[in-house]
Amino acid sequence: MSESSQPSAAPQVKDCIFCQIMVGQLPSTIIMESENVIAFRDINPQAPLHALVVPRHHYGDVAQVAGADPKLLAEMVSLADEVASEFADGQYRFIFNSGPNAGQTVFHVHGHVLGGARLGWNPA
Q1: What domain of life (predicted)?
Q2: What is the distance between the alpha carbons of residues 68 and 44, in angstroms, rounded to a whole number?
Q3: Cα 28 to Cα 21: distance, rounded to the nearest angstrom
Q4: What fold, for 3-115?
Q5: Does 108 participate in catalysis according to the annotation?
Q6: Per-domain boundaries in the chain
Q7: Which residues, listed in sequence order, are joined to residue 10 by a DSSP beta bridge?
Q8: Residue 121 reports pLDDT greater than 80
Q9: Which of 50, 58, 108, 110 is catalytic?
C-alpha cells in the first residue's frame, strides 16, 4: 500500500467504547499502561487472565497499525508480554480478531491477552 493510501489513526472516535475508556467516560480496570498503549481487564473473561491491550489512538484493526505504525504494534506486543509476566507467569496467548467473521466486535484495534491456565483450542 502506498504511503498516501495508508489509513491514519484518529486520536479518538466519538462513538468508540475504547476511545471512551481512554478519556474516562466509561469505567474499566486498567492493569498496566505505557506511553501509547493501555491494558485493561476484559468484561467477559475467557481465562483467569483476560486483558485487552489497546493503543490510545484509534486504528480499526491490526493491519492498519502494522501498516501505519509498526513501532506501536511492537509496543502493544511488549505491553502484552509485561501483563502476562505480571499476571500469568509469562505464559500467554495474544490474539487479534480482525473483522466481524473473525469475532471483532469493537473496531478499535485490540489484542486479547489470555493466560493463567492451560488453554485449549476451539476456534469454531
Answers
A1: Bacteria
A2: 30
A3: 7
A4: HIT family, subunit A (3.30.428)
A5: no
A6: 3-115
A7: 58
A8: yes
A9: 110
